[in-house]
C-alpha cells in the first residue's frame, strides 16, 4: 500500500492588459495510484515580480507575455494607483 | 433536452471543456461556468517585518471571489500603508467593480476598519473610519486582523 503525494500545475492563465499570470497548483494524495484527495492553491504574479522561484513552465509563460511594453504599462498603472 | 430531475448519488463532473450550468434561464446572467475552492498565500506589501501567522481560504463562484484570511503583525515598526497582497485571482479591470470587505476580528485600537481591493491587481488596502488609509504602525504592532473579502473578476 503506497501513499504518494504529487504537486502539479493545473492551470496557468494570463489575465488582462497587464498580463497578470494566475497559477493554480494542485496537491494530490494517492493510494496505490488511486486519488484520495486533491487540494488547490492559487497565486498570481505581476510583471514587476521576481519569478526565479517559479516553475519553469510559469517562467516561460511570464517571459513570453511580459514584454517591455507590458512591464512599462504595469509600472505606470501602479504609479497611477498610488496617486 | 430538458432534464427535470437528477438523481445521481455520485458527483456530476462537468469537466473542463467549457461546460456550464444554466440556472433559472438561458442567458449569460443565468450561467454558472466556474466553481473553485482552495488556499492562497497572504503577503503584506512592503512590510518590514515578518508575517507571523496566516490562514487563508477562497471560494470562487462564477465571477465572485470570497476570501478569508488571518494575519498577525509582528512588533516591527513600519510607516508604510497596510496592504494585503497575494489575492488568489486578479480583481476586475473596472474600478467601478472594486469592492472590499471587513474584519471578522481585530484587536487593533482602530475603529471601523474596512478593506478595499484595487482594480487590475491582487492587493487590498486597509482603511479606518472616514476612509483613512491605515499604516502598519497605526494598525498597531503585534496586532491581529481576521477578515472576509469579496470581489469580482472579469
Write the layout of secondary structure elements.
The complex is a heterodimer of chains A (83) and B (154).
Chain A: E1 3-15, E2 20-31, E3 34-45, H1 56-65, H2 68-82
Antiparallel strand pairs in A: 1-2, 2-3
Chain B: E1 21-22, E2 31-32, E3 35-40, E4 43-44, E5 54-61, E6 64-72, E7 83-85, E8 100-106, E9 114-117, E10 123-128, E11 132-133, H1 136-139, E12 144-152
Antiparallel strand pairs in B: 1-2, 3-5, 4-7, 5-6, 6-12, 7-10, 8-9, 8-12, 9-10, 10-11
The number of helical runs of chain B is 1
Query: What ranges of chain A have pLDDT less than 50 throughout 5 or more consecutive residues?
Result: none
Q: How far is the first residue's CA from the last residue's CA of chain B?
A: 30 Å
Give a quick account of the main beta sheet of chain B: strands, pairing sense, barrel closure. 10 strands, antiparallel
Shape category of chain A: elongated
C-alpha Rg of chain B, in Å? 19 Å
**Share of helix among residues of chain A?**
25-40%
- Radius of gyration based on Cα positions of chain A: 17 Å
Note down, in words, how this protein is organized.
Chain A is an alpha+beta fold and 83 residues long. Chain A has 2 helices and 3 strands; from the N terminus they run βββαα. In chain A, strand 1 (3-15) and strand 2 (20-31) form a beta hairpin. The longest helix of chain A has 15 residues, at 68-82. Chain A starts with a strand and ends with a helix. Chain B is an all-beta fold and 154 residues long. Chain B has one domain. Chain B is 3% helix and 39% strand. Chain B is built from 1 helix and 12 strands; from the N terminus they run βββββββββββαβ. In chain B, the strands form 2 sheets. In chain B, strands 3, 4, 5, 6, 7, 8, 9, 10, 11 and 12 form a 10-stranded antiparallel sheet that branches. A two-stranded antiparallel ribbon of chain B has the order 1-2. The mean pLDDT of chain B is 87. Classes of the chains: A alpha+beta (83), B mainly beta (154). The A-B interface holds A 15-18, 20, 22, 24, 39-44, 46, 77-78, 81 and B 36-41, 58, 86-90, 93, 118, 120-122, 153-154. Strand 3 of chain A pairs parallel with strand 3 of chain B.
